[in-house]
Amino acid sequence: MTLQPPTPFPQSRPPEQVAFDRHELGEILGLYGRMVAAGEWRDYGISCLREVAVFSVFRRTAENPLYRIEKRPRLRMRQGMYAVIGIDGQTLKRGHDLKTVLRVLERKLIRAVE
Length: 114
Fold this sequence. Notes:
The chain has a five-stranded antiparallel beta sheet. The model has no long low-confidence stretch (mean pLDDT 82). Helix 1 runs parallel beside helix 2 (98-106). It starts with 21 loop residues before the first helix and ends in an 8-residue tail after the last helix. It has one domain. By secondary structure, it is an alpha+beta fold. It is built from two helices and five strands, in the order H-E-E-E-E-E-H. Helices cover 22% and strands 23% of the residues.
């Protein structure tokens, strides 16, 4: 009888994911809270995928997202890794700084007072 050393399990790396960090989520959730208080938004969803992290904003839970806030690190050196995309898929704003990209959504809060 010969004893063989145990074969190690194949080491599989967990898939890498793109995610928002704490500072980015603070910026996004601050805007989300103001829009909920204004009655514009009601729900959100976060997706962390291999190449993109998406924060989706909904008016109602069962609808398509009104806006998607995306983070794509591969575009960091080109157009900027942050983007706001509308319901029709049109890119509303893209840039390197999340705060300036989110300003396109803050304009929705400004209303004329009669």
